[in-house]
Fold these 3 entries.
Entry 1:
Amino acid sequence: MLQLIPVLAGVSFVVFLTMHLTPGDPVEHMLGQAGRVTQEQIAELRAHYGLDQPLIVQYGVFLEHAARGDFGPSYSHLGRPVREVVAERLPATFELALFAFVLALALALPMGIIASLRPQGAFDRTATVGALLGISMPGFWLGIVLMIIFGLRLHWLPISGRIDLGLAPPPSTGLNTLDALLAANGPALWSALKHLILPGAAMAAPMAAMVMRMMRSSMIGVLGQDYIQFARAKGLPERTVVGKHALRNALIPTVNIVALQTGLLLSGNMIIETVFQYPGIGKLAVDAIAAADYPLVQAVVLIYALSYVMLNLAADILHAALDPRIRSPRSAG
Amino acid sequence: MAQPLIEEQAPETVAATTPGMLRLLLSNRVAVVAGAVVVGFAAVALLAPALAPHDPTDQHPEAIRAAPFWHAAADGRFLLGTDHLGRDLLSRIIYGARVSILLGVVVVLLTLVMGTGLGMLAGYFRGWPDAVLSRIADTLLAFPFLIFALAIMAATGPNLVALVAALAFKGWVDFFRVARGDVLAAREADYVTAARGLGASTPHIIFREILPNIVPPLIVLSTLRMATIIIAEASLSFLGIGVPPSIPAWGTMVADGRGDIAGAWWIATLPGLAILALVLAVNLFGEGLRDALDPHMRN
């Protein structure tokens, strides 16, 4: 928990600082589109956004506001509050990330386990090559290749957006799939799911590859242990030996990789949303960079950083729950 | 008690000699091929001006989106066709190897030297330098790397110096942790105690006694880090905030070809294939190296 504070302070300060080292002034950027303006109007706007204050004062203000989720007005969204703009897009990203996360684990865990049962067998070799490809492939390229094959050639899946026009269910959670389920709207659910498959797969690939490799190698390690031989010798069915005795122990190192990779999933998110024109916060941030919309970029980067740190924390907690050896002496009893 | 200990040490001592490592590496056919591919890419990058049929930035307005050789409408002058500005794709892919490899090597060397230096310092002297550096390393480890590089590049805009800094910002931590851990173990080892007893100076112990022994894991880490850096650089360039647009880079080329995937899919996919081939080769070579240098990591 204590680790959180220096990390967040560091991230927020560097984010704040970097965004203020840019040559382009956001006020000039905003007014550039507005046509002719006077020096007074520029000065007035600078004062309005606090850009005339010393840097350290601006950082203090930024931190104080950020803690309340207030990032001020966005420069590129007609001055709407950043909080509002981000809140609008956050469910889309959450839905995509969750989909990619589930997809990655649904592929990686069974594949890792099956591969570990016959190391160097046909399945193991195929899965290992696949995992290596998944790690060596840039996500943006995989996204484009999937788009070309499944979208443009086979016409199986849509290549951009979240849902077909006119099918959007009444928003209550903001997650299209869940909203469609709540409204018992089959076509909307199908459309929303179809829109998640390609970006979700492109986002999940590197994570699936890493988790599969970890699952495989830790299962191989565990299956060679004496207590597994003992369980077999006791006459326990192989399913119990693998499914209960081996899996539980092999999952411990895997959980760490899962959390770490989920953090990387978030970095991939920005790129994948850009490739698929997916209206989440990743696309929002990339557009904000082009528009020199500092407050918006800061807000999104901080959201990513916070999620990343939280995921690491969750991994530590889960790790402790799975592995009695690293629990505190009192609870280990 | 002594007998099993010696047996456990045996495979390590076989591989721990340089000819032994080399023999292990050369017997791994996949690693040899991968290494050859990496060398091939490096040669292409070095010889780019001689190999490229065209200037990679020359625009041919009369041959915009020219078709590649396998196409019926192929333009004989451009083997892999041209992009939306009429620039030769093959020449751009050849030149693109330069930036990927150069940045990969520079960033890895920078982080290797910095991380190893600080790691040895922390591991050998312990005390407050170790406490401070380890705290910084732990904090950086919790930073989301690509998002962070993105924030830096978003601020500075595409430029090579900032790109190296953004990519190196966190990379040294991995080397720091490996070097620190190995030095911590080595400083209590018999050979260091013996050297100290013989009156060797601290720099001699650090550089002549300990350093050669921690080199193998650092070489492996360098190779695997290189793969990560190449993908990170390509990703930032794809987003338009990595390599400046005037320099041909694979990530930029994929982004440039995105608008043409319906009609001319090869413009976006071929440069990506080059990234995949290079990164895959680097990864396979790195894993081969790891198996040869560090028998414990094999499974």
Entry 2:
Amino acid sequence: MADVLRLDPIRCDGYGMCAELLPELITLDDWGYPVIAPGPIPDRLLDHARRAVDVCPVLALRLQAAPAARRPAPVPTAAGAGGR
Amino acid sequence: MTAPAALTRLLAGPPSQGGAEHLDAHRARLGKLPPVRDRREIVPVLEASGLLGRGGAAFPVGRKWRAVAERSAGDAVVVVNGAEGEPRSAKDRVLMSCRPHLVLDGAIVAADAVGANEIVLYVGSEHRDAHRALGRALAEREPDVRARTRIVAAPVGYVAGEATAAVHFLNTGDARPTFLEQRPHEAGVGDRPTLVQNVESLAYAGLIARHGDAWYRSAGRGQTRGTALVTVSGAVPQPGVHEIEFGTTLGEVATLAGITGRDASAVLVGGYFGGWATLEEVLERPLDPADRAPDRIGFGCGVVSFAGPETCGVRATAEIMTFMAGQSAAQCGPCVFGLAAIADATRRLAVGAAAADDLRRIDRWAGQVAGRGACHHPDGAAGLLHSALRVFADEFARHQARGWCSVARAAVA
Amino acid sequence: MNTQILWFATRGAGIVSLLLFTAVVVLGVMTSVRWQARQWPRFLTAEVHRSIALLSVVFLALHIVTAVVDPYASLGWISAIVPFASSYRPFWLGLGVVSVDLLVAVIVTSLLRARVGRRVWRAVHWAAYASWPLALAHGIGAGSDASAAWMIGIDAACIFAVVTAVTWRLLAGRPSADLPAVVAAIGRGSSREPGALR
């Protein structure tokens, strides 16, 4: 199952530790904020990606299942619409 | 308004100078809304009409309503987006001020269609006439509509009208965009499925509920059907809000605004998240969001702003970039620093004090900010900058090299 | 169990805990001010901070368990959990209990950071600045070796390290960029766009 890296740009505070741990996929822009290569993470880099996600002091980085694998939107059941 | 009578839909009726249309005149002209039972079945009609959102993204309205309806347990919220923070756009405030009942009809239809028990009219606080008109229009309505509808003053600011910003403001009083797992249609105001829809989109939806999707599709010259409001401004004798058929060319809009001959040389289409083009290259191009030609001009929120030959493109760009940088919600590093750097560099270029590689660096920065914020604010600014660098390329080169502005025919600053 | 061994273990583990806790505080400050050197990248500071914090929990547990189990000290489990409930130097021992309680909150919220959310995590983490001086005071007031010269030396070194770190933190100001200030500086005089319509 392919995973992608997702960055929360509001939480991100430019610590740059993710780029240190995953230089193959993450570089820093002119102001110290991460630029993440799009697309699924190669298997050989998955452990490094997890470490990068763990180290972020502000939890701005997340590993997410690739869109194709995400669950579809819930369908209202006969018992009552939605789980709201 | 000089649009042909048959194609004036939102703006049909009494002239705008007469103020807001009252409920009795509105009903006399258009009749009553279809009954509630029929309104619940309206989503397929909207999907069939092909109505696209008018907030700038041109997202299919029917599909949006379906997404909210599927998640609603009768507790959804309709946010009527009349924030209109785009400085060169006036269509939303004109619509709210002159045809508030069209907007209210659309909101009521939307609420019944998606299963909403609350309607919030989110009106830019600087649009006083619109507030007054909507307030009075609401007071004319039935008690059950008044009971579930409220008017909220949206803060002044470019990003306050962004969908997640509107929801965030209604939830917390903070009108800054958010970056949450769940989109507004899943969990928005009060964690309930929320429909955020532009006032013009809702006005059309209300008319479609009355007249049907075939009626709506009967106008339009190209792939995108229907009509839309455009705000014409800039170096034009007759600025204002007009209703045009999709597919109308920019040349026709220029004529509508009274432009003849060499009055204008460049045009800004779509707003600050749109782009510049030279008038010559787009005279024959249609205003159509679906136009996918390589030299397409986009449509955005219907801003058509003409620049005369006396406008320095570099200075105009510097002013817009400074505005966009100052309007950042200040939440994301790349947007804040990138737009600030771009604004500073374009200002230096405008006054002829450019550093050696300023021009090269702005292009690089524009590429670095796009797509890296929580909302599309930096993307819009970057897109506009790219189009300005292309359209005013000679001007920029002159400012970078010699500090002479061909427009002012003098040394810059 | 030989009560002497337990007593030595309590004292030894307590001193090691203090040293490790001091290192954790210093490393925490270094993380937040984004310190780095050519051969020491920033992620290393963050990871070592976490590793030593977890290590210090081990020594802290040893310190508490050996103290409670030691029949000579006659401390019940209650006095290890409820502050100021011991019969032996209740005040100074109690400070240690409060310090541990705060530390447990910090550790638990850190381990469950993704669940509790950043705001809660951050608020609780500030309690570490209160926990450390309480631990130090506990050692000075309730520690058997507190008056020994070498122990005074250790205490002084720890105080020096933490005071230096805290000063560094205060002088660094806001380590993260003040984004609203940058935007406000642009906005001065430029927020009204000349092409705007009435």
Entry 3:
Amino acid sequence: MNLSSLDPNRLPILGPDLSDLHASLFPRHLRILTPIHPKSCALISLHLPAHSTPPTPRRVSKSNGKLYWYGSGGEILAETNSSGTTLNEYIFFGGRRVAMLPAGGNPIYYAEDLLGSSRVITQNNGAVCYDADFDPFGGEHPYTNNCPSTNAYKFEGKERDTETGNDDFGARYYTSRFGRWLSADWSSIPVPVPYANLTNPQTLNLYAMVSDDPESFADLDGHDPDNEQGGTLPAGKCPGFLCWLKNVLFGDPHKTHPAPKGNDPVGPVLANMAVGVQNLLDRAAGRPDRQTSYYSARTPQQAKEMQQVSIALIFVPGVDADELLAQLAQGAKPFAEGKELQAVIDALYQDTDSLPGGTAGAVRAERTGIRVGGKIHTLKAGERANQLRKLVARGNLSSKDVALAKALIQDLTNALTGK
Amino acid sequence: MIEKSLQYNQIREALLLAIPEIRDGIREKFGTYYNLDLEMPDAYPIFEDVLKPLLLKSLEDQREETYTARIFDFLEAMANSPDPNVSRDLLCIAVLEPLVFNRKAIREAWQHMGPRTRELARAEAATQGHGDYIPIDS
């Protein structure tokens, strides 16, 4: 399906069996927001046209003759030599590299952390052949490194060149030895300071890795993420389209989350996407569209972009909309009948949280080595679980609240024990 | 007198010693499901559910200077604690993080904060994307 042929005046709900379309969508803008749940069979995926988010340059070959073959989502699916003989093939799932199939060898399997770094590799018999930590700026510290096939995809899943030790992020090369990019950030559209956010002086350094905050952010393509279209998610700040989307999917369902408007800083293209998402969710819930008109473009460039922006809610056969939305809402804040339990929930799930899942979500992220907001939430999680046990033990919660409190205790316990 | 090197396992006792008024808040908040004669809630519930609202209220009401000063003296002692569970986690999660999201409160609090608390608050504000809430002349 050609996405640019979709009717921009009526963003579609797409039917089942669209795996081919799924492959052509570009989920990078949701990567932070919607960790794929193991049981999830569906996801919302947003597509921005190539000229809206400038295409990431891709390396097609190296001087040693190695050629790269890309999938439609930009992932490297195969490497061949210059005569086309396959060297390695790669399998991706949910945007993550999960396996390498070396020519003539057995497959190896990747376990990545939240940043996409390859932390553990196992052989096909389950034996761990690579186990490494990465420091925040990407320095590799292997404890085990005896895989039969050499893995070059390391920090944030990017290829680390054996010749130089530099990482190929697409738009630029990065050196983990200095924690700096080897060239300044750039934009295909002339702007005063590429990818800078003038309210955050850290972003004015065009050589800094994710504004020198690599414990909180991952770089996806070599461009500083701080000012990408729609904005990223500095903890607790909700500046644009993505933050609105996060609130809609994971936020308090009793609150209204006004969608960005066409004259807001996000611009009419993203505002129209917000209208589309809102309508998709309304339709899935059996409600009428709350806004049937779309915003007009103010510039020829925006008009062109609108022609190619599409939103798809993909339904996999056998998954109904309610189940899909319930899965998407995993990590959303629950609500209690009693005010004492609600007070604990309010402390666990705060409006200022930068990740879904409340305190348990923060603990889970921290178990991967990421400190959420530079802090560690394990003590809080344990103490709040104790408090919930006290509430349950008192014995006068409603049955619904008992079930909810027990579920919260289990969630916190699971997070603390790594389940 | 606040212990200079506060440790996490003594933080509740230290708080009660420095700000005895907190006992009323604890009783009101937790008295229905904790037997407070025998046990005390853990630190996070006390700091997040009792101390934080007390602090915000004292800033809002511009309550008597000595009371507010006692709270901030205690926070400064927490900020100087060598125990990261106190200075990095409890102080920042329970007090500074909510404070830096509230422009008016952080500006009011700034005049009472000690140097180390200011330093941590400034870092917290930057992390949370609210660096502009911190007064410029600091």
